[in-house]
Amino acid sequence: MEFTRTRTGFDLADCDFLKTIMMLAVILYHSICLWNGNGWHLMPRESSTILAFLCAFLNSIHVYVFTFVSGYLYFVLLTEHNRYGNQRQAILGRAKRLLVPYALMLLVTMPLVFALERQSLTMLLQKYILGIAPSQLWFLLMLFLVQTAFLLLGKRVYENVKFVLFLVLGVYCIGLLGEKITYDYFQIWTACRFALYFYLGGLFRIWQRATCARVPAVPAVLAEAALFGLYWLSKQQPGRLFTGIAEGLLFLCTLSGIAMALALTEAFAGTACYRRLTQKSIYRFFCKYSFPMFLLHEQLIYLSNFALNPILPTAVLALVNFVWAITASGFLSWLLGRGETTRRLFGISNQSVCATQTP
Fold first, then answer.
1. What angle do CA 24, 28, 31 make, to 5 degrees?
2. 30: left (phi > 0), else alpha (psi -120 to 50), else beta?
3. What would you report as the CA-atom Rg of the chain, rounded to the nearest whole angstrom?
4. Is 119 left (phi over 0), alpha (psi -120 to 50) or beta?
């Protein structure tokens, strides 16, 4: 299903653009994640405060925007296109879309991690089979659980907004507590937290249709800059008090980051540059293959980090990681898109624009 712009402000036609930009942001994040301050699979030769700052900033935005847009599109299909009437069929469709690629990627990721990191079989089973820390694939488990929960709620999600909003807020708190007392098996606690962002995306669609309102760009950018600056400063301070303040500020950063992403997309979408960009073949390629590129990129970065970290300077390795991940994952995604079976298994749409194909 391809959408066109129908009004000013953020619209369905912009979902592909925002998802594509966030996919690139995820790849950039993993390209520099080695310098996040704590290491990543291995320790970097040298630290970088700039890359650590950028890494933290991207991590406060990208997956939250992804989840928000997924909720936005879910509500469009539920309330405006009468989708998901058959709950069982819809849940099976989500499993096919999210869990099948998860299982397929385990066949690649587990042997690779074992070869590079020499982790024990028990650790690999805990991380990937039990879903405690399955690399970037955690997002698939989380989104499946969130979408399944909302499918089971049915029409209540828009007929009884106050009840569902209080429910997801309570579940969010349960997720925060659960992460502190036990392992995050199958990303259950993470799903509890991200259900809030998914629902906020749906509520934004309802509010937007009722008001046709825009998100103001300048206040959104200033709020994100101020909140993230305070978060970064609090994060550097020792003590439980500052840790608690940093966690609270991070939550606010995720919300202001979503608002900023929406506002900047709205502002850019009205320009001639946006119209030219969205007609370019490279953009339409990234849009079409964003999901398989998301699935494949992190494992490619593992390879370049282990091979090149001992010999390349920080800035060069970060750039090589990004270019290598974009190029190789794009090429592999194109190859997967050539076959009917692989296209179906990895969720690659035949359409050049696939706004409803949320990961």
1. 140
2. alpha
3. 20
4. beta
Nearest to 10 by CA among 64, 60, 58, 73: 73
Residues 6 or more apart whose CB falls under 8 angstroms from that of 224 comprise 253, 256, 257, 259, 260
- DSSP, collapsed to helix, strand or coil, labels residue 40 as strand
SS3 (DSSP) at 182 = coil
The label of the residue with tokens 């980090």 reads: 305
Q: Count Cβ atoms below 10 Å from residue 65 Cβ, excluding itself.
A: 23
Locus of tokens 């619209």: 11
With 0.90 as the threshold, say if the pTM is over it.
yes
Q: Exposed (0-12), middle (13-18) or buried (19+): which is 283, by Cβ within 10 Å?
A: middle
Task: Describe the crossing of helices 15-32 and 240-269 by its angle, rounded to 10 degrees.
Answer: 140
Handedness of CA 54, 248, 221, 194 (dihedral sign): positive
List per-residue pLDDT tens for the chain, 359 residues long: 444 444 445 777 788 899 999 999 999 999 999 999 888 888 998 999 999 999 999 999 999 999 999 999 999 999 888 888 888 999 999 999 999 999 999 999 999 998 888 888 899 999 999 999 999 999 999 999 999 999 999 999 999 999 999 999 999 999 999 999 999 999 999 999 999 999 999 999 988 877 766 788 899 999 999 999 999 999 999 888 999 999 999 999 999 999 999 999 988 988 899 999 999 999 999 999 999 999 999 999 999 999 999 999 999 999 999 999 999 999 999 999 999 999 989 988 765 444 444 44
Q: Which residue has the tokens 């991070």?
A: 250
Neighbours of 358 (CB within 10 A): 23
Residue type, 54: L
SS3 71: helix
Closest-CA residue to 299 (of 135, 85, 107): 135
Residue 47 near residue 317, CB atoms below 8 Å: no
Question: Using CA atoms, how far apart are residues 328 and 326, in angstroms rounded to an integer?
Answer: 6
